[in-house]
Amino acid sequence: MSQIQLYSAILCPFAHRVRLTLQAKGIPFESIEIDLQNKPTNFLEISPYGKVPVLKHGDNRVWESAIVNEYLEETFPDPPLLPTEPMQRSRARIWINFADTRLFATTGKLLYGRDPHPRALLTELTEDLLFMEHEGLHKNPASTPYWLGTGLSLVDLTFHPWFEQIAVLEHFRGFGWPSGLDRLQEWHAAVAQHEAVRSIANSPEFYLECYGRLVQAKF
């Protein structure tokens, strides 16, 4: 197998989801940390979008986290992290798209926007989580611990980094965990205990310290 290199950043949730996929599949890789506040001068030669993650596999380069994860799924199919049945596979892609276009998009505006009282964004984030609870997890049998059933999937690994960093939203932006999200909390407790997730987990204190330094540098 050709050596895999992952250009990553410890705070980037998109790079995190790729690291999780590599861990879940047991794929050895070299992680190259990129300081996104002080990128290498040649970084655009590595990442045409100037972002992480970027995966190098031999002579191949892949970027954009959802695409990187599907590349890993197709190139290293065991253990599988996507269903084989077309409708279930489509469902997985719908939720991965929801994560990118709704949950993480709203969070990015909330964290990096200039509004000191972002009530509308906090409301939007609450609505996103309630949608996940009712349109996602409530339609699963109560006995299924993961998003698509009994097995870990790319959907779980896509959403998890948001939950691992939730203390940042609570501390810096006044986010409060909404009521009525019991299934979502149970789901995340199950994902957080998975060996692949635990192997690279960071504590809330770690994220608060790192984001605190970013806030100080910004202002």
UniProtKB/TrEMBL annotation:
InterPro entries referenced in this protein's UniProt entry, alphabetically: Glutathione-S-Trfase_C-like (IPR010987), Glutathione-S-Trfase_C_sf (IPR036282), Glutathione_S-Trfase (IPR040079), Glutathione_S-Trfase_N (IPR004045), GST_omega (IPR005442), GST_Omega/HSP26 (IPR050983), Omega/Tau-like (IPR045073), Thioredoxin-like_sf (IPR036249)
Annotated keywords: Oxidoreductase, Transferase
Entry's EC annotation: 2.5.1.18
GO MF term (any one): glutathione dehydrogenase (ascorbate) activity
GO cellular component terms given for this protein: cytoplasm
Coiled-coil segments: none
Domain GST C-terminal: 85-214
Annotated catalysed reactions: RX + glutathione = an S-substituted glutathione + a halide anion + H(+)
Statement: the UniProt record of this protein carries the keyword Oxidoreductase: yes
Keyword set includes Transferase: yes
Catalytic EC class: transferase
Any Pfam family: GST_C_2
Gene3D superfamilies per the UniProt record, alphabetical: 1.20.1050.10, Glutaredoxin
Residue ranges constituting the GST N-terminal domain according to the UniProt record: 2-80
Protein name, as recorded: glutathione transferase
Organism ancestry: Bacteria, Bacillati, Cyanobacteriota, Cyanophyceae, Gomontiellales
